[in-house]
Structure formats: structure tokens, C-alpha cells
């Protein structure tokens, strides 16, 4: 463990102990101990999370908010407790958390609230959500496609204009341009907190303040921050935030939307059907208040219970300590890659704090070959464009290799990865 970490930081012994909670980390891949550096794509799950889901499924499994029987009542209680746990984790009130299947669905939910309001759904109260020609949606060139395409589609449906905050040559957001782009016509600003390619923590406070100054709403993509940093949606003063359970020790199939209560109260729903209504006739329906209004259909109860167990696990370790540990690993990743001749670290010149995630290109070696070579040594990384083609295009590459850590990652794993990258170059015989 880095000597620079203070006494409250995660110690080596503690990390080795908590790794025992993750059986998959003890497995071998291609004859080598698994070095899992793909937590940015999906994280591993501790036994406490697997046990919580199994316990629910073996003792209480039933549909929530409906049945009159005991199991349904108890399942409803534990489902709503899970919501409260996740709400607390991000600084929200219980009824400000809407369950979705992932962050992608959560962003689409908000984008469709805008387009439904724009065709008159929701009545006068939806003024802030109404878009038409002359209105502007602002996002950035850095976004994951999940926080870009829903806004492209929204612009196409409403006639609004999509404006994109550009990146500088290093890959950082050009904040001067952002200040000029966010203006009186801006209705919504959608920005990522942490880049899923560069690992930098964006100075989103400035964008949030600029958006609010002109009366625009802000959606924060917290997919790569909620799992790795203490996140307080109220302190950040965002209107919406989204995250996915599978990136924060939880299961796939569940994510969450945070929305300010007064906004959720007026927003028209995205998905409609059962479980989100009060009265229905053959021609119209009255909707429940939020969050149920946005949770159509039978809910993912065991996944919610497991996600609550995941955030309990993270909270017990302590998010500030996880953030410290990963910042140190992230720096070690960048320094190690930087020291290898022939490696270009994307965003290396950006002077911003980082999480434990870095992407790189080796001119002359395709990222798929890099990933394959590392996999032969049991090292799992992500290759490709990481659902961020505009960012890669801006940096002049079509793809990259990404290593991403989590609380269970060790310095030894980062070092093994760095050695693996050096060996890759040796093997393919490429030097800059
Ligand atoms: N936003 C960011 C920054 C991401 O990293 C991801 C996933 O990689 C997403 C959005 C989409 O998450 P999901 O596929 O879980 O909906």
C-alpha cells in the first residue's frame, strides 16, 4: 500500500481480507490468478450481496405493492427499505429514488419526460420540460453513448437543438466554451461526473451553477462516480442523477434515477402499464405519485434488495477510504503506463483528480490484440471504444485499452498489469 495513504486508508491486510468476500477473485484464468481490472464495465459481487438476494428469494420472494398475503407485505417492506438505503447512500430522500433496469433506462426516462411534456402530457406544470424549436439541450463530447443518444433522439423528436461542449486536445472539457454554450435557450444540461475513458473527475459544479443560472435542469451521469466516490446529490445540487447497480457491487438488471421531488411530481411517465396507476378507464388513466409513477410493471425486487446490501457493504468499508485507495491505484496506473515506451495514455495531460481508471493506446497494436495478450496472463481489461466514440475520435484513436480498479484491487495487480503491457509491446515488437 502506498506510504502516502494516511492511517484511515484501506490497509493491505484489510484489502486481502475483504478480497475473501469475493470468491471470483480467487479463481484462475488461463493458468494465472485472475487480475480483474474491468470493474468500470461491471464490478464483482461480495458474498453479502449474493447471500442477500438468495435469502430474499428463498424466504420472501413475491411481487410488491399488490398481494394481500404475508410474503407480499414483507417483500414490499424490504423493497422500500432497499430504496431508503440507496437514497441515503447518495444523499437523497426515499421518494426521490426511482428504480430502473440500469442507468441507460434512467436517462431515457428523463429524456422521454421532456418529449412527453413537449407534446402536452402532464399539463401546465411541465413547463420546465417543454422543448421545441429554439430550445437547446447541452451535453459533452466526452459522454458515454448512454448520455448522448437519448438526447440526440430527444432533439430529433422535439425540434430542439443539441449543443455539445467540446474537448481540448488532452480530452478535458473546454469550460470556456461551456460557459458560452449554456445560455437563455438551454433547457437541460447532461454531463458525466467521471469519464468512463479518462478516469478524470469533471469539475461539474461549474456546469451545474451555469445551468441553474439560466433556469436549465441538470442530469448527472454518476455511473462512474457513485461506485467510487462519496456522492451527495443535494450538496452537488443536481436535478437528476443516474447510476447502475452492477458497477457498485450489486446485480445487473437494476439501476436508479435520483430526481428532485418537485420535478418527479410533475414529470409525465416514460413506461406505462400496471403498478403505476390509481384509476384506469378504457380511455384514460390517473397515475400514482412518484416514485411508483415511474415504475411500471412487476418490479425487480431481489435485485433491489441485493443493491441495498451492496451499498451497505460499501458504506461499511467507507466511501472516502475507497476513493483514496482508488485515487492511489489510478495514479499508479497512469505513472506505470507513462513509464512504458510506446504507450499513449489518454487524457494523461489533464490536471484533474482521478479515480482508478486509465485508458491507453499503443500505436501499431490493436487494442483487441492487447486485451487478448493480457487475457492470456489472466489479466481482464476492457478494449474498444467503451461506448464513447466521439471522445476517441477527438483524441485521434478508434479504440483503446482500459484498466479499471475497485476497492478490492491491489497494487500488485496494477503492477502485474503494467508488466503485462510492457510484455505486450515486447511481444509485438512495436516501439514509438
Ligand atoms: N454512463 C457511463 C459513464 C458508463 O460508464 C456506463 C456504463 O459503462 C453507462 C453510462 C451505462 O450504464 P448501463 O449500461 O449500466 O446502463
Automatic annotation (TrEMBL):
**Record keywords: Cytoplasm included?**
no
Q: Provide an example Pfam family for this protein.
A: Aminotran_5
What Enzyme Commission number(s) apply to this enzyme?
Answer: 2.8.1.7
| Top-level taxon | Bacteria
**Could you tell me which InterPro entries the record lists for this protein?**
Aminotrans_V_dom, Aminotrans_V_PyrdxlP_BS, Cys_dSase_SufS, PyrdxlP-dep_Trfase, PyrdxlP-dep_Trfase_major, PyrdxlP-dep_Trfase_small
All copies of domain Aminotransferase class V, residue ranges: 35-417
Q: Write out the function statement from the record.
A: Catalyzes the removal of elemental sulfur and selenium atoms from L-cysteine, L-cystine, L-selenocysteine, and L-selenocystine to produce L-alanine.
- Indicate what this protein is called per its UniProt record: Cysteine desulfurase
Organism expressing this protein natively:
Microbacterium murale
Amino acid at each position: 500500500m502506498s506510504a502516502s495513504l494516511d492511517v484511515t486508508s484501506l490497509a493491505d491486510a484489510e484489502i486481502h481480507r475483504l478480497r475473501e468476500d469475493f470468491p471470483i477473485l480467487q479463481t484462475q484464468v488461463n493458468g494465472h490468478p485472475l487480475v480483474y481490472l474491468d470493474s468500470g464495465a461491471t464490478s464483482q459481487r461480495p458474498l453479502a450481496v449474493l447471500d442477500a438476494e438468495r435469502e430474499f428469494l428463498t424466504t420472501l420472494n413475491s411481487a410488491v405493492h399488490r398481494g394481500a398475503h404475508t410474503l407480499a407485505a414483507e417483500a414490499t417492506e424490504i423493497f422500500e427499505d432497499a430504496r431508503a438505503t440507496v437514497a441515503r447512500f447518495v444523499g437523497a430522500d426515499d421518494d426521490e429514488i426511482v428504480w430502473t433496469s440500469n442507468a441507460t433506462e434512467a436517462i431515457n426516462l428523463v429524456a422521454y419526460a421532456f418529449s412527453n411534456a413537449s407534446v402536452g402530457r402532464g399539463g401546465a406544470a411541465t413547463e420546465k420540460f417543454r422543448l421545441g424549436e429554439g430550445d437547446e439541450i447541452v451535453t459533452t463530447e466526452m459522454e458515454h453513448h448512454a448520455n448522448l443518444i437519448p438526447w440526440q433522439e430527444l432533439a430529433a423528436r422535439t425540434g430542439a437543438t443539441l449543443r455539445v461542449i467540446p474537448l481540448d486536445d488532452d480530452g478535458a472539457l473546454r469550460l470556456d466554451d461551456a460557459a458560452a454554450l449554456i445560455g437563455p435557450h438551454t433547457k437541460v444540461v447532461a454531463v458525466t461526473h467521471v469519464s468512463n475513458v479518462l478516469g478524470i473527475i469533471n469539475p461539474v459544479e461549474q456546469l451545474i451553477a451555469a445551468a441553474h443560472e439560466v433556469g436549465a435542469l441538470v442530469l448527472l451521469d454518476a455511473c462512474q462516480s457513485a461506485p467510487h466516490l462519496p456522492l451527495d446529490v443535494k450538496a452537488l445540487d443536481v436535478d437528476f442523477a443516474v447510476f447502475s447497480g452492477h458497477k457498485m457491487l450489486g446485480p445487473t438488471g437494476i439501476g436508479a434515477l435520483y430526481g428532485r421531488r418537485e420535478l418527479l411530481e410533475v414529470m409525465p411517465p416514460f413506461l406505462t402499464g400496471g403498478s403505476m396507476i390509481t384509476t384506469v378507464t378504457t380511455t384514460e388513466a390517473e397515475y400514482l405519485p412518484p416514485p411508483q409513477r415511474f415504475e411500471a410493471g412487476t418490479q425487480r425486487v431481489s435485485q433491489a434488495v441485493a443493491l441495498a446490501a451492496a451499498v451497505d457493504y460499501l458504506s461499511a468499508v467507507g466511501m472516502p477510504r475507497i476513493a483514496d485507495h482508488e485515487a492511489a491505484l489510478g495514479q499508479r496506473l497512469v505513472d506505470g503506463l507513462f513509464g512504458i515506451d510506446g504507450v499513449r495514455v489518454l487524457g494523461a495531460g489533464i490536471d484533474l483528480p482521478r479515480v482508478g481508471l486509465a485508458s491507453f493506446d499503443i500505436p501499431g497494436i490493436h487494442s483487441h490484440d492487447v486485451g487478448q495478450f493480457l487475457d492470456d496472463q489472466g489479466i481482464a481489461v476492457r478494449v474498444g471504444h467503451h461506448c464513447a466514440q466521439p471522445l476517441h475520435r477527438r483524441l485521434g484513436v478508434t479504440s483503446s485499452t482500459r484498466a479499471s480498479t475497485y476497492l478490492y484491487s491491489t497494487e500488485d495487480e496494477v503492477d502485474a498489469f503494467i508488466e503485462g503491457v510492457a510484455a505486450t509491446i515486447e511481444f509485438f515488437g512495436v516501439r514509438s
